[in-house]
């Protein structure tokens, strides 16, 4: 079994894994980071979005070995202890969630989106979140959340 | 006579836009779903196996290669089931594992139990299943041709509609289709079964109906209900898709655990989930109506031909509700509403938010559009002309009197705030000058009956514990699927005790705390469970009041609860102090609460009585633009005004309205289920089945709650149910599209079926132009 090493949420991890281990399985099963969800299994829904070297990626269709040597951030690594990331705070305060299953992937995508676009307008947010399906909220409050967070993130 | 609604006392918790109880956990990623629960050591994993064919006798089942595949511990077939091989919610016909024959493509024939999910899935591919294939009935017409049905035809009728339509000055007849819908709950079906002492079993299951699963597992394993506990803390979405459809996977996990003696988990892969679980019923709808020059209807005849799939499942209630809502907001002086429950060799269709109601309303709204188009009238005027009214125009086709109608005011307000009349003129002008892009505008009303139409389901239980430190634990029979039920019930309990919401601990729904529950469905979760929890809290509170009156020698009326304190005459003590005293004085701090909805008397056989406690109302105004060269469509603006009575939580209610509307919009515009001629679903992933994303939102989306004095019925804090009704607000989008196409040829009804996908819009446009 090959060995994989990566930094996950600031911690160095090394493990021997089957070569076909998906990154999402590695995170969820080996590292018990279950905040990253599997929704559709085929990188359509975005519930599994994480950051690899600061860029958002869908971890359900990526091998763990492909992340060898990378800096991985999952939803669990976004908050600084008790202090939520502005995006997490905004989703809470703006009711940008219902069942919560898409929320973690949505937040990870949104953080990357704001990083790339600064203060995105509604249209940019809507377009930018096309890869994340939410079946509950109708997105209105999600767009609102991202907009609110963008204000905080710049400042 | 309108009932007088008492003005509510000032509230500390109810009515506040409190965030979802799990919001903090959701944004941190530490809210546990079933698949996140730490698995006990040695947990096994299941995968389903099925045949290539859709229908026929199973001639042979060779599972040797499956059994010898790496990691496989057991392979389950029908013969492994000690008790009843059925996971139907009602009439039977839903085998947990196929026994002898298969009735639809994707029906589970066997299940692999292996060390890992991947090993189980790989092994499931190795079976050789020989089926003597029969020609499947795929469409409603196929089933009709063979006179196949899952349930008898049912009908509401009044007067002599056929003769009246003939005698009417004007008449129209039409046939169109209404598509089905995949739930696509983000969290797929999943259950984890853990063996306990002495053959008892604990099943964590993502379901709207833990009680039913408990009972099905008990019957399957031939054990007592009392030996099975089903628990669900939360679901990652459900929408009706985890009412009866969660049972099979829970049963299989329990069976695997029974056979192997080890914990077992079944999580469906998404494609399997979409293939193997039921969806919203799709319909063909044939109708005719008689009316006068003003569009006022004299009589309606409608036949709903529902593709129910291979078994009855929940088709009785679903199709009944289509009939209950075939009138939507309109008075039909004479009518025949007939529902045909057709059997096909496709997956058994099931509950989906609205439970048949949406299909009934898509019909009524198409009829209104058709009449308006034929007469060249504004569709809103035709709608208003047919609204339920005063005595003589207030009896529904099922005999219930509409007593709480607020549509005239509500629609009137939305007409103003959406600037409907002015925009209609602007759109007419736009359509005249724009050769290819055409706009449509529609303002559709909504009236939705609240209560389970199966009377006995209108009951709920709750269990409230107060601990000596003043903290409160609440449990009830309702399940949390994101709608915020737990939050609302906690608000109610906090309100009763006059304590902060933080002091109320919400616990997982489980059959060993509150037994014999109804499913969390029919929008009734808060109405029922909120009331049961309130009653439980009131019982404890009255004990505390008795105690305080005794201890402090004071009138009971001088005792009140607020701000985490108890006011006892002039004295004020912390709530926790009184609960501590209760323990010392040997007063119980725990109580159950039980609620059964009053005033519902529906009798299905005699078709009489009152099925609903009340109606929820709303209206939506939608503007769309279609491209007549490509069929593309965008929703430019949507205005919604919706009635939730006195909102328990405006933030959660608006979330339900926005989410429900967008889900309905997806159903009627982009979400298309395609079965091939063998009855195989070809759209079994979000890559081919188009669910709305953020970019499909209306550019301008305005949602408001109707400023209500409160429900006229004595519901929980005079609120109204909100889960399902908003889905049906999306009929406005379908109507707006119809109107946009109709602008091509005044007076001609476009032949458009739902969903109005670009392909369907383009086909309808071509048909309109073809006569030129």
What is the secondary structure topology, with strand pairs?
The complex is a heterodimer of chains A (155) and B (772).
Chain A (H helix, E strand, L loop, with lengths): L2 E6 L2 E6 L6 H8 L18 E4 L2 E4 L12 E3 L12 H8 L9 H15 L4 H7 L11 H15 L1
Parallel strand pairs in A: 1-5
Antiparallel strand pairs in A: 1-2, 3-4, 3-5
Helix pairs in contact in A: 2-5, 3-5
Chain B lengths: L22 H6 L15 E7 L5 E7 L1 H4 L4 E5 L24 E2 L5 E7 L2 H8 L3 E6 L6 H6 L3 E10 L2 H7 L2 E9 L11 E6 L5 E5 L4 H12 L6 E5 L14 H14 L3 E4 L2 H7 L5 E10 L5 E13 L5 H10 L9 E10 L13 H19 L3 H8 L20 H11 L2 H14 L3 E14 L8 E8 L5 E5 L8 H13 L6 E3 L2 E2 L14 H28 L6 E4 L2 E4 L2 E4 H10 L5 E7 L17 E14 L5 E10 L7 H20 L30 E6 L25 H12 L15 H13 L2
Parallel strand pairs in B: 1-12, 10-11, 14-15, 18-19, 26-27
Antiparallel strand pairs in B: 1-5, 2-4, 2-6, 3-5, 7-15, 8-13, 9-10, 9-12, 11-20, 13-14, 16-25, 17-18, 17-24, 21-22, 22-23, 25-26
Quick structural gist:
The complex is a heterodimer of chains A (155) and B (772). Chain A is α+β, with helices and mostly antiparallel strands. Helices cover 34% and strands 15% of the residues of chain A.
Characteristics of this structure?
heterodimer, A: 155 residues, alpha+beta, Ubiquitin-like (UB roll), DNA polymerase, domain 1, 2 domains, 5-stranded mixed β-sheet, 5 strands, B: 772 residues, Aldehyde Oxidoreductase, domain 4, 8-stranded mixed β-sheet, 24% strand
């Amino acid at each position: 079994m090959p060995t994989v090493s990566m930094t996950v949420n600031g911690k160095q991890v090394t493990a021997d894994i089957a070569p076909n281990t998906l990154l999402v399985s590695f995170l969820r099963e080996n590292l018990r980071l279950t905040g990253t969800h599997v929704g559709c299994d085929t990188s359509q829904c975005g519930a599994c979005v994480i950051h690899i070297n600061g860029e958002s990626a869908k971890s359900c269709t990526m091998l763990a070995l492909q992340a060898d040597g990378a800096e991985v951030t999952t939803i669990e690594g976004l908050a600084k202890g008790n202090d939520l990331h502005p995006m997490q705070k905004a989703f809470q305060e703006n009711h940008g969630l219902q069942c919560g299953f898409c929320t973690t992937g949505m937040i990870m995508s949104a953080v990357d989106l704001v990083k790339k676009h600064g203060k995105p307008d509604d249209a940019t947010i809507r377009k930018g979140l096309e890869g994340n399906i939410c079946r509950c909220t109708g997105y209105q409050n999600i767009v609102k959340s991202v907009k609110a967070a963008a204000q905080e993130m710049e400042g | 006579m309108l009932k007088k609604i008492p003005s509510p006392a000032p509230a500390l918790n109810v009515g506040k836009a409190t965030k979802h109880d799990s919001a903090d956990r959701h944004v941190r990623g530490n809210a546990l779903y079933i698949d996140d629960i730490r698995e006990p050591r040695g947990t096994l994993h299941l995968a389903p196996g099925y045949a290539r064919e859709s229908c026929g006798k199973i001639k042979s089942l060779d599972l040797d290669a499956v059994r010898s595949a790496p990691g496989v511990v057991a392979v389950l077939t029908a013969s492994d089931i000690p008790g009843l091989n059925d996971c139907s919610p009602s009439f039977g016909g839903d085998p947990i594992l196929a026994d002898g024959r298969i009735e639809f493509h994707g029906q589970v024939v066997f299940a692999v139990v292996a060390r890992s999910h991947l090993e189980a899935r790989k092994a499931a591919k190795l079976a050789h299943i020989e089926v003597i294939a029969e020609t499947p009935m795929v469409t409603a017409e196929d089933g009709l041709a063979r006179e196949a049905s899952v349930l008898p035809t049912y009908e509401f009728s009044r007067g002599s509609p056929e003769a009246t339509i003939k005698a009417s000055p004007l008449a129209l007849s039409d046939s169109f289709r209404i598509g089905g819908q995949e739930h696509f709950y983000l969290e797929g079906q999943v259950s984890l079964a853990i063996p306990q002492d002495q053959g008892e079993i604990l099943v964590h299951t993502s379901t709207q109906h833990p009680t039913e699963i408990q009972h099905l597992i008990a019957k399957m394993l031939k054990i007592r209900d009392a030996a099975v506990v089903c628990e669900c803390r939360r679901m990652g979405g459900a929408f009706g898709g985890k009412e009866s459809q969660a049972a099979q996977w829970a049963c299989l996990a329990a069976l695997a655990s029974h056979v192997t003696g080890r914990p077992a988990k079944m999580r469906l892969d998404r494609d399997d989930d979409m293939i193997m679980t039921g969806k919203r019923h799709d319909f063909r709808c044939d109708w005719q109506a008689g009316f006068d020059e003003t569009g006022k209807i004299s009589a309606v005849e409608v036949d709903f031909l529902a593709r129910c799939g291979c078994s009855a499942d929940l088709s009785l209630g679903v199709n009944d509700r289509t009939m209950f809502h075939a009138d939507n907001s309109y008075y039909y002086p004479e009518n025949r509403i007939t529902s045909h429950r057709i059997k096909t060799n496709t997956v058994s269709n099931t509950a989906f938010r609205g439970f048949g109601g949406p299909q009934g309303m898509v019909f009524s709204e198409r009829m209104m559009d058709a009449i308006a188009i034929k007469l060249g009238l504004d569709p809103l005027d035709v709608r208003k002309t047919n609204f339920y009214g005063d005595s003589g125009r207030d009896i529904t086709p099922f005999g219930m009197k509409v007593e709480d109608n607020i549509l005239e005011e509500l629609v009137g307000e939305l007409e103003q705030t959406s600037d409907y009349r002015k925009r209609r003129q602007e759109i007419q002008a736009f359509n005249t000058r724009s050769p290819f892009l055409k706009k449509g505008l529609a303002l559709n009303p909504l009236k939705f009956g609240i209560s389970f139409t199966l009377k006995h389901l209108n009951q709920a239980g709750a269990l409230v514990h107060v601990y000596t430190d003043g903290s409160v634990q609440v449990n009830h029979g309702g399940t949390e699927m994101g709608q915020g039920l737990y939050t609302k019930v906690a608000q109610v309990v906090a309100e009763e005790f006059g304590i902060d919401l933080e002091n109320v601990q919400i616990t997982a729904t489980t059959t060993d705390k509150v037994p014999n529950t109804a499913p969390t469905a029919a929008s009734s979760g808060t109405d029922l469970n909120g009331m049961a929890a309130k009653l439980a809290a009131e019982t404890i509170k009255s004990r505390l009041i008795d105690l305080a009156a005794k201890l402090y020698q004071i009138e009971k009326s001088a005792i009140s609860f607020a701000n985490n304190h108890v006011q006892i005459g002039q004295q004020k003590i912390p709530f926790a102090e009184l609960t501590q005293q209760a323990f010392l004085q040997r007063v119980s701090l725990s109580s159950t609460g039980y609620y059964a909805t009053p005033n519902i008397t529906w009798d299905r056989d005699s078709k009489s009585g009152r099925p609903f406690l009340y109606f929820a109302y709303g209206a939506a105004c939608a503007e769309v633009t279609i491209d007549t060269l490509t069929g593309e469509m965008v929703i430019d603006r949507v205005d919604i005004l919706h009635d939730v009575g006195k909102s328990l939580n405006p933030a959660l209610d608006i979330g339900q309205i926005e989410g429900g509307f967008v889900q309905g919009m997806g159903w009627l515009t982009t979400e298309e289920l395609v079965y091939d001629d063998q009855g195989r679903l070809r759209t079994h992933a979000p890559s081919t089945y188009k669910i709305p994303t953020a970019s499909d939102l209306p550019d301008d989306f305005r949602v408001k709650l109707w400023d209500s004095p409160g429900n006229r019925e004595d519901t929980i804090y005079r609120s109204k149910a909100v889960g399902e009704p908003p889905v049906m607000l999306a009929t406005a989008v379908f109507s707006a599209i119809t109107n946009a196409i109709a602008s091509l040829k005044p007076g001609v009804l476009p032949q458009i079926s739902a969903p109005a996908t670009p392909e369907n819009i383009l086909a309808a446009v071509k048909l309109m132009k073809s006569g030129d």
